Amino acid sequence: MAESTIDYTTLMPNNVGLADDPRLLRALERWYPKYLEWWVAMGPSGFIDETPFQETEVWLRTAVSVERDGWAQFDYVKMPEYRWGILLAPPEEGRTIPFGEHKGQPAWQEVPGAYRAMLRRLIVIQGDTEPASVEQQRFLGRTAPSFYDMRNLFQVNVEEGRHLWAMVYLLQRYFGRDGREEAEELLRRRSGDADRPRMLGAFNEETPDWLSFFLFTYFTDRDGKMQLEALAQSGFDPLSRTCRFMLAEEAHHMFVGATGVGRIVKRTAEAMRDAGIEDPYDTEQIRALEVIDLPLIQQKLNLHFSLTLDLFGSEESTNAANAFHAGLKGRYHETALDDDHQLVESTYPVTKYVDGGFREIDVPALNALNARLRDDYVADCGGGLRRWNRYITDAGIDFELSLPHIAFHRKVGEFADHHVTPQGEFVDEITWNARSAEYLPGDGDKEFIEVLMQQVTTPGEFASWIAPPRKGIGGQPVEFEYVQIPGTV
Ligand SMILES: [Fe+2]
Ligand SMILES: [Fe+2]
């Protein structure tokens, strides 16, 4: 069978030849009911009290091919019946390790013994984020602003579930008993749990409302993209192929975020214009229109951006250096970069706080890979903001959304011990405490948003605080019934 063809005869659709590997197939089949148990307990939940939520039909795309064109097919699916598949991008003939000590050697098809522990760790950390975000988003269906948005949420959720499958496949296929244990652990940790939290900070935070959801998919899924891009370069070919296919799905998650925030900004700007409100800080008047004021959007943006930057880890990291040197995790667009891909003598400028100011200090490039990936990430974040700001200027309002300074509100790395404003000004603790309510959402803001978040379940209608999308999804118009709740037809 060609490797781009998907086999549907096994419980998990796959293009990795599961039918020919009965031991692995059995191991994955044993994991399946545990995964479903987790999905029902921790996945999308309680659409409306009393309705058999798991029976809800959702207009979802399922991957039916790993080729670039026509890889997805849309249909009504009950989420627990979604075909979570194990799908790798087609192999590249004669692929070699693109960077590090083993650069130029044939890519590994089996785990290189010396790097087993390091590789397993990379896969587990990536794998842990996938179910975590599903857990963080599990109650959002209850407050969805439309069927269109609810469907997008569920699409993101089932695909994060598939990403978990992708990592669990690698663990079970290549890491024997250790891998099976890690696969169990991935279902045992819980986002935000005091005793068994998820591995990374931002994945233990709440996603309490839809503005948070859109900012999360814009900023935090984009961290996911950067990590996947770096792992897609891996000399361990199965990991590279897995990540390359995951990236195709990830693009939709960021689309949901970028357009979601954009539609909120658009709605606010237009409501202000129509009501003749010019001052963006006239929050009382603006909130009376049942839209989210721009300063609050900026505060929520500050929060999600800073939490996400912490995911990149310390600017200088020997772990990252080792993973690169070993050929396991590369840089963003590694193969397109014009250098020796080994970084033996090169340096990279890392922003630090020195003598009362920010300075760019050259450090060995091998040690600065986290800083570099973060810098690439920050640049990648810019596009959405430019589009969002256009809605504001189009409505004739004098306000600009912007990314806060990278040192703002950090808990990891170079700036963790400092208080820095979104504008990049160092302040002492007393000043910070007095002013942080300007920078980050407060309790009153959370209450305001909570009251706004009311579920809308008439096809084609949208909550007051968000504009409709320009077009529908999966070949359907905006007013399509993207979610069918049993007993309500
Ligand atoms: Fe993912
Ligand atoms: Fe994602």
CATH architecture group name: Orthogonal Bundle
As a whole number of angstroms, the C-alpha radius of gyration is 23 Å
What share of the residues lie within helices? 40-55%
What is the H-and-E element order? HEEHHHHHHHHEEHEEHHE
Unreliable runs: none
The CATH topology is given as: Ribonucleotide Reductase, subunit A
- Please report the first level of CATH classification, the CATH class: Mainly Alpha
What do we call the CATH homologous superfamily?
Ribonucleotide Reductase, subunit A
Q: Strand arrangement, largest sheet?
A: 2-1-7
Bound molecules: fe (ii) ion
3D structure, described in words:
- The chain has 489 residues and is mainly α.
- Helix content is 45%, strand content 7%.
- It has a single domain (18-484), classed as Ribonucleotide Reductase, subunit A.
- The protein has helices at 22-42, 116-136, 147-174, 176-188, 210-232, 237-275, 283-288, 294-309, 318-325, 369-394, 429-439, 443-452; strands spanning 57-63, 72-78, 347-354, 357-364, 419-420, 426-427, 483-484.
- The strands form 3 sheets. A 3-stranded antiparallel beta sheet has the order 2-1-7. A two-stranded antiparallel ribbon has the order 3-4.
- A hairpin with a 5-residue loop joins strand 5 and strand 6.
- Helix 1 runs parallel beside helix 4 (176-188), helix 2 packs antiparallel against helix 3 and helix 6 runs parallel beside helix 10.
- The longest helix has 39 residues, at 237-275.
- The radius of gyration is 23 Å and the shape is globular.
- The mean pLDDT is 94.
- Residues 130, 160, 163, 224 line the site of one fe (ii) ion (FE2).
